[in-house]
Specification:
mainly alpha; two-stranded parallel ribbon; 9 helices; 60% helix
Length: 260
């Protein structure tokens, strides 16, 4: 059983792990993409006239450190609640049907995408925005440094499904780790500031359902619309997709042909 000392130690350990993730996927990716590849990838830049200033970068790092500490506590809480028997997490893949074993990741991702869309859209309500979500929107031209830059309440809201769903559904531990990893990678791409998806991405019906880097970048730029996380479904159904999203995406790839 977890003691309070065990819980604090686990929280610090998880926070350190999250810090390493931020160093690799935040600081290191920022250094490579925003510093080393600025010339080579200049055509990929989503906002050619950058709105970023040094104080925005420091703001992102400061709030990311706070999010790292809070995420450490919340992640340790998962293990703590599992020890108490409140979680349905399991290690033996054969403990449940193989069909569920393979489908659960898709179910989790589709559920989280819907959850994110509606909570994200709600946080843009005028009575909520300035108290919570405005912190993340300080970066109108986001970078990899922005990936963890959230108000503590928003951080808790975004983490909520990772904490609650394992209480309701049997989830294989490795699948939970994979879900969190994919979420991190998607977060990095969404805040990269550069479009890395190929030219024909939006021309293919299946692929165009996945949000490109430009999709979320335009949300930071214009503050409204493009609320989706992984997919464009909800934005299209609710008519909240920014109208010139596809044109902006295509223009970026057109810029490459001009340079070449």
């Amino acid at each position: 059983m977890f003691s309070m000392t065990d819980f604090l130690f686990a929280s610090l350990k998880e926070a350190f792990f999250n810090l390493m993730l931020y160093v690799i996927f935040g600081l290191a990716v920022f250094a490579v993409v925003w510093r080393l590849l600025t010339v080579v990838w200049r055509w990929r830049r989503i906002q050619p006239k950058s709105e970023q200033r040094r104080h925005f970068f420091s703001h992102d790092v400061l709030f990311s450190l706070g999010s790292i500490l809070l995420a450490g506590v919340l992640t340790a809480l998962i293990t703590f609640l599992d020890q108490l028997g409140f979680m349905k997490l399991y290690w033996d893949f054969n403990a449940h049907s193989s069909i569920w074993g393979f489908l659960q990741l898709l179910i989790l991702i589709f559920f989280y995408d819907a959850y994110f869309y509606w909570t994200h859209r709600a946080m843009h309500h005028p009575k909520i925005y300035r108290w919570v979500h405005k912190t993340h929107h300080k970066s109108t031209d986001p970078s990899p440094l922005t990936i963890f830059a959230f108000h503590p309440l928003e951080n808790a809201i975004e983490f909520f499904p990772f904490l609650v769903l394992p209480m309701l559904l049997p989830i294989w531990w490795p699948m939970l780790f994979l879900w969190q990893t994919l979420d991190l990678l998607n977060n990095v791409v969404a805040h990269l500031g550069y479009e890395i998806y190929p030219k024909k991405w939006l021309q293919l019906p299946i692929l165009r359902c996945k949000t490109a880097s430009t999709h979320h970048n335009m949300h930071h730029e214009q503050f409204v619309g493009n609320y989706g996380l992984y997919f464009t479904f909800w934005d299209r159904w609710m008519k909240t997709e920014i109208s010139d999203y596809e044109q902006r995406f295509n223009k970026i790839h057109h810029n490459r042909s001009l340079i070449q």
